[in-house]
Amino acid sequence: MDERLPYVPGFADRRSAREPKREGRALREAVPRHAHAEFSVSPGRPDAVTAVEEANRGRIAELVPLRVGRMVASPFAFLRGSAGLMAYDLAHGTPATGVGAQICGDAHAANFGLYGDARGGLTIDLNDFDETVHGPWEWDLKRLAASLVLAGREAGADEDVCRTAARDAAGAYRHTLRLLARMPAADAWNAVADEELVSHADAHDLLGTLRRVAEKARRNTSARFAAKSTRETADGGGRVFVDAPPVLRRASDEEAAAVAVSLEEYLGTLPEDRLPLLARYAIHDVAFRVVGTGSVGTRSYVVLLLDHRGKPLVLQVKEARTSVLRPYTALAGLAEPEPEHEGRRVVLGQQRMQVVSDTLLGWTTLEGRPYQVRQFRNRKGSVDPAALGAGEIDDYARMTGALLARAHSHSADPRLLAGYCGKSEELDEAVAAFAVAYADRTEKDHAELAVAVRTGRLPAEREV
């Protein structure tokens, strides 16, 4: 071996005798793949209502009933709003391989979708990263699998269909890792491109739904949102938001000024080549907008920008709270330093997991709180997994399993993960068994929340 060149940190060491695939196989001795079927409720587990109350701390009080109202709608909705409770369960009641990756932290089946790239095309990937951390890869996979069981039940699918969806999500995850492990590193990084995804996941029954979602996504733009949510000013010199309670309200003058000033810090977090583009837009108005299920009650604003022709670009300035997974990753042997800025954590996590990310992602600080900033209504579209037919839910499961594997492979060596997951269906069956057990637990948690709402312990507001 030529020893003239020194080892440079950050690159692979050519002198290393490491064999990641063999290391992955060796992990099975410590944590057998069949062990991932295990789920036990820890004696110290908070009850569902207490967990919801704890998660509501620090949120805007008048919006908490709306959050509870969304969560009580169904067991699947409860799961979507209780990532912290599931993280507790995963940390205390399931085995951990100790292999870390940049994980979504909230990889349920509704957090995948279409969005626009810089050239006007559409891509499909994970699309919510509020809880992203360096954590156990299996936590994302198990959350996806459990959510598919709950979504299938809500859609009226029988138990065999629901369990098969969970199993096949894990199978697609495993098959995709094995594919990526065999490829040259640069090819693997961008593999399973959107145009290949349906064939790779054998998701042909989903094609019609994906086409309809794509057509809707292409119309879901800043211009369309601005046309529906703003009006022309009396002097004709611009546009302002129009109140649409409870989801949208125009910000007060003081509030709007603070948001606008915070965008100066945001500009400093962008690549310099983006700055000339934003310099062609002027800030015209700011509104507060309610978001999501898990995010309801956090602070989130939309900022209306107009160019010289009056064409809009809308930015979202969204509060970035501490990831609900952070207290639990150390229990899985994957502690990491506290992030210097929670908005930065979200942005970097998203960029590490996606093949293509929003070109205007950044972060800022507003009144001492960290925020992420991104384009709003950037041709986004999503599949509602709870509305899929029995023939489609399995296709969707395989597609999302493949996307999750690709996302994890950007930060964890796919050879290591593929070595652990292996050729057999042992892991698939184990994850499916876990998913059914956890879905059952979630239905009990949802029932507890429903009782708390009926008895008045937790106020809930249903949307019309």
Biggest sheet, in brief? 6 strands, antiparallel
Total DSSP helices: 18
- Which geometry do the CA atoms define? globular
> Structural class of the secondary elements?
alpha+beta
**Radius of gyration using CA atoms only:** 22 Å
Name the poorly predicted regions: none
Can you give the mean pLDDT? 94
In whole angstroms, the N-to-C terminal distance is 70 Å
The string of secondary-structure elements, in order, is: HHHHHEEEEHHHHHHEEEHHEEEHHEEHHH
Seen as an oligomer or otherwise, the chain set is single chain
Could you please describe the fold and organization of this structure?
This protein is α+β, with helices and mostly antiparallel strands and 464 residues long. The protein has helices at 20-30, 48-55, 64-71, 75-80, 83-93, 137-154, 159-182, 185-189, 194-200, 207-219, 222-229, 253-267, 275-278, 326-329, 342-353, 390-408, 414-421, 426-454, and strands spanning 100-103, 112-116, 122-126, 133-136, 230-232, 239-241, 248-250, 282-289, 300-306, 312-319, 362-366, 369-375. The strands form four sheets. The protein has a six-stranded antiparallel sheet with strand order 7-8-9-10-12-11, with helices on both faces. Strands 1-4 form a two-stranded antiparallel ribbon. Helix 6 runs antiparallel to helix 16 and helix 7 (159-182) packs across helix 18.
